[in-house]
Specification:
Residues 125-386 form the EAL domain. The protein is of the alpha/beta class. Helix content is 35%, strand content 25%. It is elongated and about 75 Å long.
């Protein structure tokens, strides 16, 4: 069994293209020593390469490629496995699209095929190659600046002090330098309860968090708080109790966003949909949290029409380097745009993650990148402007 990795990248601005022949010659020798085959395309700005061979050799070569300063914005498009090689035995071949006729390069690549069965563009790897040659991927390809372009400077403006029983985390618009919401997270360990007792306890904790947040949040600030979805179904009068807690805290329903986790199995979808209708009739907004981590997300979008979704950290982690994650998130953003649903990206730890998602159209973010100390908000500052 062989491993295949396909990636694209951007040549560094200070690297002359005249180095390409020597670079390819050295890379070919290195590939051969690892029994790895490489088909490399270059269009004057971007590289595209198919690597295939024994898994250990391909991973070693690819890790070296990712560390090479002669290019940046390395995005892994595909990682797959196959019973045999598509191309040659080992080494690397360059197709320079600046001089090679684009109409014939596709056939030239096919002619290099050595697999037992004739290569066609039904092959998924070659579909990626064709898309690159025909420059059809540009609308989905966002360049991000180097991480060291930004400093993230903590500022107490808009932050909330710690409160006993609740942890506050901001939702921010980094470029607008605005805290758009505050999430109130109960500072208690989850109770080891089962069945209805679990949901009764969850509602009690949420109501106490609302009380504390009402005393701490600035007037009119949107308050985000997560609840177990079946709490709204299983606890008699849950929505009435929530509305009472909101009123007692000096808040109004219109400033509350209730987040329900997609990873929670919603076994009573009709009852949950009815509860959501009651929430919205009262003025409370709904968010689907951890979107992309579970299996219910698309069904919930269709059935309950949330006001927001929050994409979880698992799907945004290193998204600037993962073509599959980028494709999934772009599809989610397009879907939510069509439905006028706001998207929040949570769990942001790296500047590159934020920059890619910002370029894709996300405005609201959460994560340690923007609130590293919990109580202060860190705004991005251009280092050249400091």
């Amino acid at each position: 069994m062989l491993t295949t990795i396909i990636y694209r990248s951007h040549i560094s601005d200070d690297v002359p293209v005249s180095i390409l022949p020597g670079m390819v010659e050295k890379a070919s020798l290195l590939n051969a020593s690892h029994q790895v085959t490489g088909i490399l395309l270059f269009n004057g700005t971007h590289f595209f390469q198919i690597l295939e061979g024994p898994e250990e050799g391909v991973l070693d070569i690819y890790n070296r490629i990712c560390q090479d300063p002669r290019h940046h914005n390395v995005v892994e498009l595909m990682r797959d496995y196959s019973p045999s090689r598509r191309f040659g035995n080992a080494g690397m071949e360059l197709f320079d699209l600046r001089t090679h006729d684009r109409g014939s390069v596709l056939q030239a690549v096919l002619d290099r095929g050595t697999s037992k069965y004739r290569l066609t563009y039904d092959d998924r790897g070659l579909q990626f190659l064709r898309t690159f040659v025909e420059a059809r991927e540009k609308e989905n390809y966002f360049e991000v600046l180097p991480a060291d372009y930004w400093d993230f400077v903590p500022n107490d403006s808009g932050a909330l002090p710690p409160a006993s029983g609740v942890i506050f985390r901001p939702v921010v618009d980094p470029l607008g330098r605005e805290v758009t919401a505050i999430e109130a997270i109960p500072d208690v360990a989850p109770a080891e309860l089962q069945g209805d007792a679990r949901y009764t306890h969850n509602l009690k904790v949420i109501m106490e968090a609302l009380r504390i947040a009402g005393n701490a949040c600035p007037d009119g600030m949107t308050l985000y708080i997560s609840i177990l979805p079946l709490t709204l179904v299983s606890v008699p009068g849950a929505i009435g109790q929530l509305l009472g807690a909101i009123d007692n805290a000096g808040l109004v329903p219109q400033q509350i966003i209730l987040g329900v986790s997609e990873t929670e199995v919603i076994s009573q979808l009709d009852e949950f949909t009815t509860a959501v209708r009651q929430l919205k009739e009262a003025g409370i907004s709904l968010s689907i949290d951890n979107f992309g981590d579970g299996s219910a997300g698309l069904s919930l979008l269709a059935y309950v029409q949330p006001d927001r979704i929050r994409i979880g950290g698992n799907i945004v982690r290193d998204i600037h380097r993962s073509g599959p994650k980028q494709a999934v998130v772009q599809a989610v953003i397009r879907c939510c745009s069509a439905l006028e649903i706001n998207v929040i990206a949570a769990g942001i730890e790296r500047a590159e993650e934020w920059m890619w998602l910002e370029a894709a159209g996300v405005i609201d973010f959460q994560g340690s990148l923007f609130s590293p100390e919990g109580t202060a908000v860190a705004w991005p500052e251009n280092r050249e402007a400091i």
